[in-house]
Write a structure and sequence with these properties.
It is a single chain. Helix content is 41%, strand content 16%. By secondary structure, it is of the alpha/beta class. It has 2 domains: 1-37 and 88-130 and 181-263, TPP-binding domain (Rossmann fold, 3-Layer(aba) Sandwich), CATH 3.40.50; 40-85 and 131-174, 2-Layer Sandwich (SIR2/SIRT2 'Small Domain'), CATH 3.30.1600. The two termini are 19 Å apart. It binds nicotinamide-adenine-dinucleotide (NAD). Nicotinamide-adenine-dinucleotide is lined by residues 30-32, 34-36, 39, 41-44, 47-48, 110-113, 130, 203-205, 208, 229-231, 246-247. The site of nicotinamide-adenine-dinucleotide has 27 residues, from loops.
């Protein structure tokens, strides 16, 4: 085994020990935890921003311009089609196992794919900062519609109707550029970041704010900060442990070590 592999193994053991000894662990996930499931992240080559113009998908464009709205729905039609059969991967299942073992207090996620729920983590322990793509909501009265009904309309080439309760605009329940984050999820995520003693970031570029303030907030409040990513991130310099690797591979080894107490 090479020296580099040895040090990675030591880091995996180190993370397992930290998880086992932690009083309260918050795991913060980004698009990188879902790439192994086949959902592209935004910033890696071939990611979504290589294929769509982010300005076209902004909230101000959506609410003010019917053409942008139509493009937005086409984006979602494609996204739903790509993601509807996607399954959780080893990294999601590792987090579900950590919850079963009693070593995870909460997941704060920037992801909108619902894969943490699908892997088996309890919904009340998951805080979705950027919403969930499997719901459509009225922007005025918050009435909920199922994604599949709207998807069928789009597949038939029809326009998305307005809200049947109040005539407001319907939009997937995800946060677009220029749109506020869901208040309760953000408030809870801040509270959890301030009081946890271990904050583990998995597969996030840590450049999308305000979500990326949370690791800094946790660190400033006294938590140990661990970052797992296949690339360097801007917060590596303040982290107590940085593991460079694939989320599925690393987290399955980490959880096995926690389970067997091999650290
Ligand atoms: P990002 O695209 O900015 O960064 C993803 C990070 O994950 C990168 O740093 C990349 O190096 C790393 N990565 C990719 N695959 C990995 C793997 N297998 N193992 C370890 N690291 C890996 O994503 P972000 O930080 O979450 O921010 C982007 C925004 O995009 C979020 O707001 C999120 O809502 C949204 N988004 C969500 C999904 C999803 O729900 N699955 C997918 C794309 C984008």
């Amino acid at each position: 085994m090479t020296g580099r592999d040895d040090s990675k193994e030591e880091k995996i053991t180190d993370l397992a020990r930290r998880l086992a000894e932690s009083r309260e662990t918050v795991i913060f996930t980004g698009a990188g935890i879902s790439t192994e499931s086949g959902i592209a992240d935004f910033r890696s080559p071939g990611g979504i921003w290589d294929r769509f113009d982010p300005n076209e998908l902004s909230y101000p464009s959506f609410v003010s311009n019917p053409v942008s709205r139509r493009n937005y729905w086409q984006f979602y039609r494609e996204y739903w089609k790509e993601a509807r059969d996607v399954e959780p991967n080893r990294a999601h299942f590792a987090l579900a196992k950590l919850e079963d073992l009693g070593n995870l207090s909460a997941i704060v996620t920037q992801n909108i794919d619902g894969l943490h729920q699908k892997a088996g983590n309890s919904p009340e322990k998951i805080f979705e900062l950027h919403g969930n793509m499997w719901e459509v909501r009225c922007l005025s009265c918050n009435d909920i519609y199922t994604w599949n009904d709207i998807f069928q309309l789009l597949e038939e080439g029809k326009e998305v109707h307005s809200c049947r309760q109040c005539g407001g605009l319907l939009k997937p329940a995800t946060v677009s550029f220029g749109q506020s984050l869901p208040e309760r999820a953000l408030r809870e995520a801040q509270r959890l970041s301030e009081r946890c003693d271990l904050f583990l970031c998995i597969g996030s570029s840590l450049v999308v704010y305000p979500a990326a303030y949370l690791p800094e907030q946790a660190k400033n409040s006294g938590a140990k900060l661990v970052i797992l990513n296949r690339e360097p991130t801007p917060l590596d310099g303040i982290a107590d442990l940085v593991i460079s690797g694939e989320a599925g591979d690393v987290m399955s080894q980490v959880v096995k070590a926690v389970e067997t107490r091999s650290f």
